[in-house]
Design goal:
The protein is an alpha+beta fold. Helix content is 59%, strand content 16%.
């Protein structure tokens, strides 16, 4: 950058600062304040909405990947060479753990006559201790998953509620799919409920049950297909691991979580993008307001603009004065929005709990004053407890992108609003004076 450019930039910044100081005391201070406030609220809203949406979706995704689908599945594995696959996975630093399981569909019935369709998965007794991701997602309400004895079963919370059973009750797997060496219909598959779990995905809570591997071989049959579930350290790096596994074991069938959950995860992505587009309309509205306000400011500064042109200021230099003002509004509003947005996002549980109590307080006061006989029916809204339990997940790249749009919208609005900065000449200004 040469000396002329530096001098020009200093002059532009000096004039912009002078205009800003005058605007803070003049009529346009309210316009500037409201524009900055609009950017702040837009950035704040987008960060909070996206963070809560991320947490809402990740609770689904983590439960599916850690409990039901794993990151990579291996099937059609020759049982005579299964140790080679296990040894390969144990030696690969990208892989956390590998475990085998049997799975069958069943119709469960309880002693009180209730029934429900379920997926029963037979796992090794050491599975729960080895798989940390499984432990973190599966919350045991009653009993333990650490050791499952023979003829014992662990049910999802919704499944147990549908059957009307608790720990210690007996259920029967009346219809059971499996190998060719078992009967589809049988009444001899009795299991005692030893535990009840809950996770972040309701479909798993209502349809999954776990037994130990010995019981699986006994009831599913020796011909039942065994699947190997593989957990990797970074689930989004599955493509590289999948390529290595297919190259090392071309005779086996490997599937990534992206393949058998493609439609569900695509729906979640579309939902998030659509929500972001709707909320991003805030920036469009704020940009239009800044455009109108900046055009008025350019008209109010027509005398100064004409004089600047007379003393040698170029079109670009004068235009840059107003663009810098838009940049200042965008930066100030975006930074405030990011700070408050992050504060709210990391404290959503506290905010929803406090909001629930505030609403309950005003409902109680209003009912006490006007309808005391209905006081017994006033209680806190349980929906807020559900909202408070949803974790917020913040991604730096998304915050950076939102902040960029918060800065970009007033800058582009100021750019187009200052297109006619030299519409009036010096002679016209002097004649009007």
């Amino acid at each position: 950058m040469n000396k002329n450019s530096i001098s020009s930039l200093r002059w532009i910044l000096s004039v912009s600062n002078r205009f800003a100081s005058v605007d803070r005391k003049g009529k346009s201070r309210i316009t500037s304040f409201l524009s900055g406030l609009g950017i702040c609220l837009g950035v704040l809203t987008l960060i909070v909405v996206v963070s809560v949406m991320n947490g809402f979706q990740m609770s689904f995704i983590n439960s599916i990947l850690e409990i039901s689908s794993f990151h990579i599945k291996a099937s059609n594995v020759d049982q005579n060479s299964k140790d080679l696959l296990i040894e390969y996975c144990q030696n690969d630093k990208r892989i956390n753990c590998v475990s085998s399981y049997l799975e069958a569909q069943t119709l469960m019935t309880s002693e009180n006559g209730k029934e429900s369709v379920s997926i029963v998965r037979a796992v090794d007794s050491s599975f729960y201790r080895q798989d940390e991701g499984f432990q973190s997602e599966m919350k045991m309400l009653y009993g333990s998953m650490d050791e499952i004895d023979d003829d014992m079963i662990v049910l999802g919370s919704s499944l147990a509620r549908n059957l009307g059973v608790g720990t210690g009750d007996v259920i029967n797997l009346q219809i059971l799919s499996g190998g060719n060496d078992i009967n589809l219909f049988s009444s001899n598959h009795d299991f005692t409920v030893s535990g009840i779990f809950r996770c972040g995905y309701s479909e798993i809570n209502s349809s999954y049950a776990f037994i130990n591997d010995e019981s699986g071989v006994k009831y599913f049959g020796k011909d039942a297909e065994r699947t190997y579930g593989i957990k990797i350290k970074q689930y989004d790096k599955d493509s590289n691991v999948l390529y290595s596994l297919r190259k090392a074991f071309p005779q086996y069938k490997f599937e990534s979580w992206r393949e058998y959950n493609k439609s569900f995860f695509s729906a979640l992505k579309i939902e998030k993008n659509a929500l972001m587009m709707l909320v991003a309309i805030i920036f469009l509205v704020v940009g239009i307001n800044i455009f109108n306000g900046m055009r008025r400011l350019v008209f109010e500064r027509k005398n100064e603009i004409a004089i600047f042109s007379a003393i040698g200021a170029t079109f670009s230099e004068i235009k840059l004065i107003f663009v810098i003002k838009g940049l200042i509004i965008g930066v100030a509003g975006s930074l405030c929005g990011v700070i408050f947005g992050l504060l709210i996002s990391v404290n959503t549980d506290f905010i929803f709990s406090m909001l629930s109590q505030v609403i309950y307080f005003f409902q109680y006061i209003f009912t006490f004053l006007f309808s005391r006989e209905n006081l017994m029916f006033i209680q806190e809204n349980s929906s807020f407890s559900l909202y408070a339990s949803i974790p917020s997940v913040i991604y730096f790249r998304e915050v950076l992108l939102i902040c960029f749009f918060g800065i970009f919208s007033p800058v582009i609005a100021s750019f187009f609003a200052s297109e006619n900065v030299l519409k009036m000449t010096v002679s016209e200004v002097l004649r009007n004076e």
